Amino acid sequence: MVYDPNCWMPGDGSFENWKLRREYEANPNAIEPKEPEKWLDYHVGVDIGQKHDYTALAVTECRPNYAGDKFYFVRYLHRFRLGLLFGTVVQKLVSLDRQLRASGGSRSVSITWACDATGIGSPVVEMIQKALPEATVVPVYITGGFSSTVDYDESHISKQQLVSLIVAAFESGSVRIAEDVKEAEILIQELSNYELKRSESGLVSYGAMTGGAFDDLVTSLGLSLFSAVTWGSSSQVLFW
């Protein structure tokens, strides 16, 4: 029997996947993600600021292509002004949640919130969960070391893994920043100030080491990418 690549055979897997692969191979543009027809998949990373740090957020939309590769479109970045009460921040996050839900039009919308629960962030994340009782709000603890645990109820990721995730996403070209994102320049500046330093005892630290520099948008982007990479385009997400 002569094998014809233009004809489906049982060894090719499911017919639907074979058909998608054929379309992908025939169309060089298929490597690019398509405009979602049925649902939008948003991932919001929230970095909770300390007294002298900004609270920041990043909204990333996850889209796959025919081959199943994920692409991450940064739709919105924002740093809240210093000194803003956390209660006010939570109210603005509720407003953002409404806007994202409404952005789908006739399409379903999935929103996963990955919120920094490290240190003072834990009680603030609880405030967000109470304000968004029907939302998927994941407390994420940023730790030292190398290990991580992933769960909707509570996740842990090391700073090194978070940084590696950001670097890998940019180097692969899977991250796209929308032209109308107003604070993109601030993010680029933060990325340029981001450093790795190793102490005499061997401890590694990451962040903005220059005096007066911040890395809040970088962290919030890392959290949104962590969520998108972990749960993006998944059948387990919740819809509204």
Task: Give a written overview of the molecule.
This protein is 33% helix and 26% strand. The strands form two sheets. Strands 6-5-4-1-2-3-7 form a seven-stranded mixed beta sheet, with helices on both faces. The relative contact order is 0.18. Residues 235-240 have low confidence and may be disordered. The protein has a single domain (32-231), classed as 2-Layer Sandwich (Nucleotidyltransferase, domain 5). Helix 2 packs across helix 3 (121-131) and helix 4 crosses helix 6 (216-231). It has helices at 15-26, 86-102, 121-131, 159-172, 184-193, 216-231; strands spanning 39-47, 56-64, 70-79, 108-116, 136-143, 155-158, 175-177, 194-198, 204-208. The chain has 240 residues and is α/β, with parallel strands linked by helices.
Outline the secondary-structure elements.
Layout lengths: L14 H12 L12 E9 L8 E9 L5 E10 L6 H17 L5 E9 L4 H11 L4 E8 L11 E4 H14 L2 E3 L6 H10 E5 L5 E5 L7 H16 L9
Parallel strand pairs: 1-4, 3-7, 4-5, 5-6
Antiparallel strand pairs: 1-2, 2-3, 8-9
Helix pairs in contact: 2-3, 4-6
Strand order of the largest sheet: 6-5-4-1-2-3-7
Low-confidence stretches: 235-240
The overall number of domains is 1
Number of strands: 9
Q: Considering DSSP H and I runs of 4 or more, what fraction of the residues is helical?
A: 25-40%
SSE string: HEEEHEHEEHEHEEH
Structural class based on helices, strands and sheet pairing? alpha/beta
Give the biggest beta sheet.
Answer: 7 strands, mixed
Give short descriptive properties of this protein.
26% strand, 240 residues, 9 strands, 7-stranded mixed sheet, alpha/beta, 6 helices, disordered C terminus, two-stranded antiparallel sheet, single chain, Nucleotidyltransferase, domain 5
